[in-house]
Amino acid sequence: MRDINGLKELPNFIAFVRYYDPSHHFGRIGDEGRPLNSTMVAINSPTRIGHAAVMPGDVVLGRDGGVMFIPPQLAERVVQESERTRLHDIFGHQRLKEQKYTAGQIGRDWTPEIEADFTQWMKDNIDKLPISHAAVQEFLDYRAKAAKK
Question: In the chain, which end has fewer C-beta atoms inside a 10 angstrom radius, N or C?
């Protein structure tokens, strides 16, 4: 990490910094009069951050718990799966609050009855859900195709 003050000045820029030591800017500690000793090694090259290998084009997802790197060819699938998980969670939490199902029923593979309830819930709430109408419809179509198999 370098130029932490410069990063703070960027609007809407989020940085996850594990360690910062300004001494790497100088040739030797105590010789601050020397020019900066920072060298750009490469641009758009593979790198390693912590224990993760990061490739050019990877999508970076930063959350409170840390940072993940998603290969670009998997990014759309990751988004779709996370939207499905979010819908499952919203439905599950709602049905738990309503005491329609127990935590044990929601926290495992769903029965055909719960699956049917979930599908109907999505249809009934298609315009109220936190993802687009088209994404919900795509998920409903996906579920219909999977049920026929």
Answer: C
